[in-house]
C-alpha cells in the first residue's frame, strides 16, 4: 500500500477555523481562514513556546483547504499540532500553525476488503476514538494504539508512534486510506492530514500480568524469547535504584534491583472489572501518579535523594506483589494512566533485535551500570523509569524501525524523567551515541533527540535511501515547500540530497 511506503511526519497534523469571505489578489475566495488573534502555542511539557504569525483551529475539511490556499496566497509555510505531546520541534514555525483538535468526528463502516473500518478526523483523541468503537454494535477496537490514550490520531500517525503489541508494529500500519490537503489546496497524497481510515476489529480481551522479579534471577535471552513467543506483547520496566537500602553497609547495590515485566495474552476469560470499577481505579491511579510526581519533582533540587525516593515509591507500588487481571484490549494497552499536569523529559530510541535476543540483555545491563556509574559521581539523571518494548518492523519509509523484512523485531527503549532533572542530557547523549554507533539505531521523532551531538548529520546518513524516495513524492505534492517548515528536517534532508 503506497501510504505505508511513503507516509510520515513531514507535517504533523491538521486544523480548522470559522468562516469568513476574503478576496485575494488573484481572485481566489477564502471562506474560512480566520486566525486566532494574539495567541501563542505551547507544547505539553512547556519546553516549546512559540509565537507564530497566525494560529488556526479548523473544524471541517473546507476550513483546512482554505487555510492552505491562504498560506499559498500570502507566501506562508504551515506546521501542524494537536495535543502537543510531540516534544521535538516538529510543530515549531514562525508562519502558520494549524491546531487540529476541533477535527474530532468518527464514522464506522463495513469495508468489502478490510472488514470493519473506522474513519477518524485528525484531532480526535485515542480515548474518544476508542469510546466510539467500544460503544458500537458490535463493539470494536484498533489493534496498535499507544500506551497513552490522550494522544490525537493524526499526531500518532504523523510521528510513526507505536503501541505494546509485538505483531502490530506502528499505528500507520493499520491504515486503509488517508485524506490529505496538499499545497494546492486539493485533497491528495501528501500534505495536512484531514482524516484517516483504520482497519478495526471486534473487541477482544487481554490478560495483563505484572511480575516483579530480581533482575539477576530473570534477565536472560532465553526468558525473553519464551515470553515473547507465548504472548501478544511484553514490556520491561526498570525503576532506577529500586533495591536501595539506606540501612545496608552498601545501600547502592544493583544486585538487589528488580525488573517489572508486563505480559499481555489474548483470552476469552471474563473481564476482572466493570467499567465503573475501572473508572474508579483510573482515578485512584491518576491521584497516585500526581503524588509520585510531586515527590520526584523534589529531586530536581535534591538529586542525591533519588535512590531513597525511587526505592520508596517502588516498594509502595509493588506492595501487593504480582498481579494478573483481564481487561478489554484498550484498557490493557492503556494501562499507563495519562495525567496532563505531569511534565517529563522523554527520549526513545529503537534498535534492531539480535535473533537470539542477547543485545536486549546487553543494553538493559549497560543502562543499569551507567546509572550506577553516574550515582557514584553524585549524579542522578533518571528518576522515573526505562521501558523496553519489542515490536515488528514497518515499511513506512521514515519510521525509526523501517525494514523491508516484516518479521524483523526492534526494541524500543523509552527513558522518562522529571522535567529539568540535572545531568539528564549528559546521560541521554551517552545512551544515544552508543546506540547509534552499535546498531545504527534511530530516535523516536516525537520525543527528544535534537540535543544529541551531530544527530542531523547522522540521521541524514542512516536514512539516506528512504529520504531520497520520500523527497520524490514530497516534490510532486508540495513543490513550494509549504509544509516543509522545520529546521531540523530541512537540515537532515539537505545533508542527504546535497551529498
For this structure, what is the CATH homologous superfamily of the largest domain? FAD-linked oxidases, C-terminal domain
Largest sheet: 8 strands, antiparallel
Integer count of domains: 2
How many DSSP E strands? Answer: 22
Helix % is: 25-40%
Q: What is the 3D form?
A: globular
Judged by helices, strands and strand pairing, the structural class is alpha+beta
Domain FAD-binding PCMH-type: 48-224
Family: Belongs to the oxygen-dependent FAD-linked oxidoreductase family.
Enzyme class: oxidoreductase
Organism: Gigaspora rosea
Report on this structure.
- Keywords: Oxidoreductase, Signal.
- It comes from Gigaspora rosea.
- One of its GO terms (cellular component) is membrane.
- The protein has 499 residues and is of the alpha+beta class.
- It is 31% helix and 23% strand.
- The chain folds into 2 domains: 1-202 and 457-499, Uridine Diphospho-n-acetylenolpyruvylglucosamine Reductase, domain 3 (2-Layer Sandwich), CATH 3.30.465.10; 204-453, Vanillyl-alcohol Oxidase, Chain A, domain 3.
- It is built from 14 helices and 22 strands.
- It has an 8-stranded antiparallel β-sheet with strand order 18-15-17-16-20-21-19-22. A 5-stranded antiparallel β-sheet has the order 8-9-13-11-12.
- A hairpin with a 6-residue loop joins strand 3 and strand 4.
- Helix 12 crosses helix 14.
- The longest helix is centred in the middle third of the chain and has 23 residues, at 275-297.
- The two termini are 30 Å apart.
- 46% of the residues are buried.
Amino acid at each position: 500500500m503506497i501510504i505505508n511506503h511513503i507516509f510520515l511526519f513531514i507535517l504533523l497534523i491538521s486544523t480548522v477555523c470559522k468562516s469568513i469571505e476574503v478576496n485575494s489578489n488573484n481572485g481566489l475566495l477564502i471562506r474560512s481562514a480566520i486566525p486566532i488573534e494574539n495567541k501563542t502555542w505551547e507544547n505539553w511539557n512547556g519546553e516549546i513556546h512559540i509565537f507564530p504569525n497566525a494560529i488556526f483551529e479548523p473544524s471541517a475539511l473546507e476550513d483546512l483547504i482554505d487555510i492552505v490556499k491562504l498560506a499559498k496566497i500570502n507566501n506562508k509555510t504551515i506546521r501542524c499540532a494537536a495535543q502537543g505531546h510531540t516534544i521535538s520541534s516538529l510543530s515549531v514555525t514562525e508562519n502558520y500553525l494549524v491546531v487540529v483538535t476541533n477535527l474530532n468526528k468518527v464514522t464506522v463502516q463495513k469495508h468489502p476488503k478490510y472488514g470493519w473500518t473506522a474513519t477518524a478526523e485528525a484531532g480526535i483523541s485515542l480515548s474518544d476514538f476508542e469510546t466510539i468503537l467500544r460503544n458500537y454494535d458490535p463493539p470494536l477496537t484498533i489493534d496498535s494504539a499507544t500506551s497513552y490514550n490522550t494522544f490525537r490520531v493524526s499526531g500518532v500517525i504523523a510521528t510513526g508512534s507505536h503501541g505494546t503489541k509485538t505483531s502490530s508494529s506502528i499505528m500507520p500500519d493499520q491504515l486503509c486510506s488517508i485524506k490529505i490537503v496538499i499545497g494546492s489546496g486539493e485533497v491528495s497524497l501528501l500534505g495536512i492530514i484531514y482524516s484517516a481510515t483504520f482497519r478495526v476489529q471486534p473487541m477482544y480481551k487481554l490478560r495483563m500480568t505484572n511480575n516483579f522479579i530480581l533482575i539477576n534471577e530473570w534477565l536472560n535471552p532465553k526468558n525473553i524469547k519464551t515470553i515473547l513467543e507465548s504472548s501478544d506483547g511484553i514490556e520491561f520496566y526498570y525503576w532506577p535504584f529500586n533495591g536501595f537500602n539506606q540501612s545496608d553497609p552498601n545501600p547502592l547495590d544493583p544486585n538487589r534491583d528488580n525488573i517489572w515485566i508486563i505480559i499481555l495474552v489474548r483470552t476469552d476469560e471474563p473481564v476482572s472489572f466493570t467499567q465503573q470499577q475501572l473508572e474508579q481505579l483510573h482515578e485512584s491511579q491518576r491521584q497516585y501518579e500526581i503524588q509520585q510526581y510531586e515527590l520526584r519533582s523534589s529531586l530536581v533540587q535534591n538529586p542525591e535523594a533519588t535512590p531513597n525516593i525511587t526505592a520508596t515509591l517502588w516498594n509502595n507500588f509493588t506492595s501487593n506483589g504480582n498481579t494478573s487481571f483481564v481487561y478489554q484490549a484498550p484498557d490493557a494497552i492503556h494501562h499507563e494512566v495519562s495525567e496532563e499536569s505531569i511534565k517529563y523529559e522523554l527520549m526513545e530510541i529503537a534498535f534492531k533485535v539480535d535473533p537470539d535476543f542477547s543485545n536486549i540483555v546487553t543494553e538493559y545491563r549497560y543502562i543499569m551500570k551507567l546509572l550506577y556509574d553516574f550515582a557514584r559521581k553524585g549524579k542522578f539523571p533518571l528518576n522515573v523509569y526505562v521501558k523496553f518494548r519489542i515490536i515488528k518492523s514497518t515499511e513506512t519509509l521514515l519510521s525509526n524501525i523501517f525494514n523491508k523484512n516484516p518479521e524483523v523485531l526492534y526494541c524500543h527503549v523509552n527513558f522518562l524523567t522529571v522535567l529539568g532533572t540535572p545531568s539528564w542530557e549528559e546521560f541521554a547523549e551517552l545512551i544515544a551515541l552508543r546506540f547509534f554507533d552499535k546498531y545504527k539505531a534511530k530516535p523516536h521523532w516525537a520525543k527528544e533527540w535534537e540535543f544529541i551531538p551531530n544527530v542531523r548529520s547522522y540521521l541524514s546518513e542512516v536514512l539516506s535511501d528512504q529520504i531520497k524516495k520520500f523527497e520524490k513524492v514530497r516534490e510532486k505534492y508540495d513543490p513550494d515547500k509549504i509544509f516543509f517548515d522545520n529546521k531540523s528536517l530541512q537540515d537532515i534532508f539537505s545533508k542527504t540530497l546535497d551529498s
